[in-house]
Amino acid sequence: MNQPTTALDHLRLGVCYYPEHWKEELWADDFRRMAELGISIVRVGEFAWSIFEPREGVFSFELFDKALELAHQHGLQIIMGTPTATPPAWLTQKYPEVLNVNFNGQTIEHGLRRHYNYNSPKYRELCAIIVRRMAEHYRDHPAIVGWQIDNEFNCEISEFYSPADHAAFREWLQRKYGSLEALNEAWGTVFWSQTYTDWSQVHLSRMTTAGKQPNPHLYLDEKRFISDSVIDFAKVQVDIIREIAPRHWVTTNGLFGHLDSHRMTDELLDFFSYDSYPQFSTIFQDPNEESPLADRGWSQTLSTVRSISPQFCVMEQQAGPGGWVNRLDMPSPKPGQMRLWTYQSIAHGANMVVYFRWRTATFGHEMYWHGLNDYHNRENRRIREARGIGRELAEAGARIASTLYKAEVAIVRDYDNEWDGEYDVWHGPFYWQSRTAWYKALTRRHIPCDTLCLRQGTTLEELRKYKALIYPHAAIMTDEAAALLEEYVSQGGIVVFACRTGYKDDRAQCYMRPFPGAAAKLCGISVEEFTMVKGTRAAVRMNWLSDESAGIAAADTAADRFNDVLLPESDTVEIIATYASDHYAGKPAVTRNAFGQGEAWYYGAVFDEASAAQVISRIGLQSPAEGILELPPQVELAIREDAAGPLYFLLNYAEEPAEMTLREAKTDLLTGRKLQGTISLEGFGVLVLA
Ligand code: GAL
Question: Is 316 considered catalytic here?
Answer without folding.
Answer: yes
